[in-house]
Design goal:
11 strands; mainly beta; 42% strand; 12% helix; 130 residues
Length: 130
Amino acid sequence: MAMTLGAAIQGDMAEAAKVKLNVGGTFVIYSGTPPANVQTALSGNTALATHTLAAVTRSGGVVTAGAIADDTIDATGTATFFRCIISGTAELQGSVGTSGSGADAIVNSTTYTSGGTSQVTSMSFTVPSA
């Protein structure tokens, strides 16, 4: 049987994530195959754009980033995943896609061209519960 969380613990975990992400980290979009998890080192991935995290909120177990300001694209490639970097440490990793893709972060286009504009429409995740 798999372990599950009650609503109170789920909310506490989401609150902890919100607080951690609100300390002024960066939201970096990468190309290439995503590492197995956030603790796995990057391997052959290219940082395409680096955004500043904005007011992160939570409701129940759902954590959502506020408006993320546009950024100038640094390199050409296909956006596949992101990492939130806090004080030099990757703390969150998720998928990148366009509207309707079911990705964790939604961008206007996954085709990035150096010098263009990277636009993040939304980013959210849910702490699992029961």
